[in-house]
Amino acid sequence: MTTPSPAGAEATRPTRLLSVPVLAWSLWDWGSAAFNAVITTFVFTVYITSDAFGPEAGRRLGSVLAVAGLLIALFAPVAGQSADRAGRRTLWLGVNTGLVILASAGLFFVLPAPEYLWLGLVLLAGGNIAFEFAGVNYNAMLSQVSTRENVGRVSGLGWGMGYLGGIVLLLFVYFGFINPEVGLFGVTGADGLDVRVSMLFCAAWTLVFSIPVLRVVRDVREKSRAREHAPGGRGLRAVPATLLGWLRRLGGAYVHLGRTIADLWRADRNTVYFLLASAVFRDGLAGVFTFAGVIAASTFGFSPGDVIIFGVVANVVAGIATILAGRLDDALGPRVVILVSLLLMVALGTAIFFLHDGGATVFWSLGLVMAICVGPAQSASRTFLARLIPAGREGEVFGLYATTGRAVSFMAPGMWSVAITAGMAVTGLATAREAQYWGILGIVLVLAVGAALMLFVRVSSDHPSR
Q1: Where are the beta strands (DSSP E) in 53-195?
Q2: Which residue has the higher pLDDT, 137 or 405?
Q3: Distance CA 80, CA 139 (A)
Q4: What region, left, alpha or beta, does residue 272 occupy, with left being phi > 0 and alpha being psi -120 to 50 degrees?
Q5: Domains annotated on the chain, with CATH
Q6: Which long-range contacts (CB under 8 A, 24 or more apart) does 168-171 make?
Q7: More confident residue, 246 or 74
């Protein structure tokens, strides 16, 4: 389904890797690390699954994130179509980033007590939904700031900047609030204040580093098939702003989504196969991020400070690996990068499960090698699709990309919970916390299925995503 860009469009894109548009675009990844790394992976999820929130907090976290994934699956393609149709990707990136900032700041009010568990889980789920919707528009901008020759390096730079941004913020949070008995501004660990104040700084971090892309990368109002044929055009604008009218527009969006899938199937079936395979393995990668800190704390005895230190080192390793892997992406193609990364992660995750009695040394050594693989797989997945999308339909297809991913987003959280339950039954352990290391097998299984499906994605040697 490779379609040439509109005349002159290629010439307007930056040809240098370190251009102002590319750097501005990459800084959103740097800023989004506040939610993706600090909140979702290394700090807040560890905090909200601690003993203070009750013995079932970890299992409920998985269930709530699965529901959030379902909502993303239902509405992501509509969001992408809307942005394409109106040519307002930058606007909607700003709106959804603003919602992420509000959710992050709201976590300040989650005190360490069981009655605050659901407030924290709802805010975390809401932030995840807004973050994914922002990501649809952000990913769609990749074609505006790159060319086919450097898309792998640009995407890798963005992912790498995200990891490096996570490092800087984790260091600030750790040395500024969590590690000292009395941190900056007199903050202590009483009532979880160190973690809660960190959430405010996460919100500010996201705000500051989202500004460059919103100011530099402007909306492109180009005529495209998505705008010509998408629902919500001239005829539907007359529909009253009622629930019935909204449902009609939503139904029309899904009719158009069906046509998009049919077009993809006719033009290049491997693109459809890739969407299915990536849906599975990306959910496994998300599971690694979501539950890594929880596993480190509950299974390997890491303190909250230890989790953050591990997160800092893992982000350094992952950031460098992802930036370097961008060159391999451009040279060898993203399929090779994805497959090698996934197969290594399956082997490493399995080893962590069987060697969990080895203590922190096992998690440090194998976990860091695993961190090398996560970013390249994510970045290469984005570039695989970016090389194929027709001009003007980036938001729609990346919305489909988000939808296919979130359509199975119950898999990693669900398999996490199922594996823990199975572990309790097999070992006779009394609580989910004691059997939490079994959740590793659930995540590994999702990654293995994704890798197996990716083996069926075939591309020719002259294919843009070879």
Answers
A1: none
A2: 137
A3: 10
A4: alpha
A5: 18-212+252-454 (1.20.1250.20)
A6: 169/33, 169/34, 169/37, 169/38, 169/201, 169/202, 169/205, 170/37, 170/38, 170/42, 170/43, 170/308, 170/311, 170/312, 170/315, 171/312
A7: 74
